[in-house]
Write a structure and sequence with these properties.
The structure is a single chain. The protein is an alpha/beta fold. It has 2 domains: about 15-175, Alpha/beta knot; about 190-255, Helicase, Ruva Protein, domain 3, CATH 1.10.8. The chain contains 11 helices and 7 strands. It has helices at about 15-20, 30-40, 60-65, 70-75, 80-85, 110-120, 135-140, 160-175, 190-205, 220-230, 235-245, and strands at about 20-25, 45-50, 75-80, 90-95, 105, 125-130, 145-150. Helix 2 (about 30-40) runs parallel beside helix 8. The longest helix is centred in the middle third of the chain and has 17 residues, at about 160-175. Bound molecules: S-adenosyl-L-homocysteine. The site of S-adenosyl-L-homocysteine (SAH) has 20 residues, from strand 7 and helix 8.
Length: about 260
Amino acid sequence: MSDTTPAAADAPDPIALARLRIVLVGAQHPGNIGAAARAMKVMGLADLVLVAPERYPDPEASARASGADDVLAAARVFETLDEALADCVLAIGTSARSRRTQWPLVDARTAAERAVATTAEGPVALVFGRERAGLNNAELDLCQLHLQVPSNPEYSSLNLAAAVQVVAYELRVAAGHGISAGDVHEPVAIADMEGLYQHWQAVLVAAGFLDPDDPKMLMRRLRRLFNRAAPDRVEVNILRGALRALDPRGLPNRKPKDDQAE
Ligand code: SAH
């Protein structure tokens, strides 16, 4: 044994791995759920969330999980993607197809680096879609970043569990580089970002800028802008305060100072 034996410097950061969540939306084949659990465990991931799975629990899921029954047994099930993401500070949607330019699209490696770096602030979700139809637009809207595994443009769709495997591998490699504690700002949960978007929408409608009967792409473009900017808690609070002050309907009625008022 020499002194040059590599140290464990490249061991993946256990905190980063623990804060990475794999979310399967509307999975149709229980075998894929089991295989995804196995793919996760091999890469050291444990937080599996299922949103409205078609068949679960199911013996086929357990069979395909092989030795990863613990990951499967600990999986949480939610009815909606909003619930699954509520406490996350970043959600990354995955897609086999490059869609229109509405969402920032990155490759798996870049997304994994961003995901791991963001675990310094809180839980980060990687969201996978249905075998047949992938994620719908409303679900993609809940994700701030979109990931595509580079593949053959004429045959671009990986099997669901295979996609989880590729992404989980990149997450493990990225976690090996450690996380930088340098640039930590106070995180904003996805539920709070949704509150901000609803506030924008209400004020823009009240101001006559957004026509609710013909909204075009305005709200999605604003989401895209904020996703690129990744505002922190203080910045979101400033925006909420500014929206309240600018709301043409006026500030919400304050309670009279004493009961005699009126
Ligand atoms: N027919 C669907 C394919 C879904 S494949 C579609 O066109 O969208 C099931 C899931 O696996 C996808 O929703 C996505 O989460 C993941 N997936 C498959 N291929 C992928 C790829 N090349 N990059 C990223 N995710 C992929």
